[in-house]
Amino acid sequence: MIRRSHKKSRQGCAECKRSHKKCDETRPSCVNCTIANRQCSYIQASRFSDPNIQRPSNEHGLRSVPEGLAGSPDESSHSHGSDQSQPGTPIPAPSQSQPYVNLLHLELFQNLITTNVPTFADEASKADWVATTNRYTFEYPYIMYESLAMSAFQLSIKYPSKSAMYLAESTALQAQALSIFNESCPTLTPKNTVPAFLFAAILGLHCFCDTFSTPSPDLNTFLDRLVQSIRLLRGIRATTGTSWEYIRNSDIKVLLADEGQAQERDDKVTHAFDKLKWTFSQSHTLSAFEAKVYGEAIDGLIKVYNSQLPNGDSIVLPDARIVMSWPINVSAEYTELLHQRKPEALVVMAHFSILLHCRRSYWAVGEAGSFLLAAIEEYLGEDWAQWLVIPKEIIPPLEM
């Protein structure tokens, strides 16, 4: 019997030599030790010990775990007192040498493909959603990292007992995504416009959902974070500029909300929107500019409400894409008025809570409508209570 020969591992780690296994010599921990969760050590001098030899970098830009990101969520993305903690805030590039790959990422990827991604699609398009998502996540590492970050964020909500672990991982993955994106896409080109848009969309959704997942008890902090997330979502559209039609007709069009299913509704919600717009237009305290800005924002709410929302009160579809289209398309002028805490801008935002409430069965939305309405109601006080009658009739009080 002819014995199959193989190349010996002459610089393998001590554990593989002790177990008589072929070592792949990956530094600082080989594959065998990583899988077996063993401490990997090399007896011989590292082949990279010579300072004149440059260590090769991963061609996809994969990096190690950033320092300080493995702590509790109070020290990471859910510490609301610092702007550095917000999703979307660049974090310095990591410097450790430990490869940033572990079995937890397999769990996150499985959740991404089997649970996270399908929740965006209807039954007819789930296969196309998964195929398109796979194609882009494997071709563009920054999309993979941010997608896994979003998956970890979802699991932190699904499994509260392990929330701290998932949130820490989500923050670390997002830091990786931002670092790689900033390096690989310093400017937009026809080649990277579509993946850049997809990355920004996932990042914006992550930031928007994070705002409501652990709302700050301080109303000003909560509203500041809300304005920040809206600006980030608006930045998605601004980033693409004149390329929107190209993106809409690209191979990711299956992932975009279909705006062609709008229907004219005639109910108390549309009546409230119309009345609100008319009141602003007749106001003697608003400038013509402000009335126009608020009117356009309300037109956007009407368009969203007429698009894909359920027929009847008993059916609530989980698709949240069309809900997120309002903050993406709302004007910079309205966002600035919201940032200034203009009462009329907050009233418009309170009516947006109706749209969020209609998508409450989607995990990324949940009770966001209730959180938003409660925050605005408390901030405005009794003087503006009559402006919030319709939202309060539709959205139940937030359970404390």
Automatic annotation (TrEMBL):
Biased amino acid composition, Polar residues: 82-96
Cited SUPFAM superfamilies: Zn2/Cys6 DNA-binding domain (SSF57701)
Keywords: Nucleus
MF annotations from Gene Ontology: DNA-binding transcription activator activity, RNA polymerase II-specific; zinc ion binding
Region annotation Disordered: where it falls in the sequence: 50-96
Record-annotated Zn(2)-C6 fungal-type domain positions: 12-42
Cross-referenced PANTHER family: STEROL UPTAKE CONTROL PROTEIN 2, ZN(II)2CYS6 TRANSCRIPTION FACTOR (EUROFUNG)
Name this protein carries in UniProt: Zn(2)-C6 fungal-type domain-containing protein
Species per Swiss-Prot/TrEMBL record: Cadophora malorum
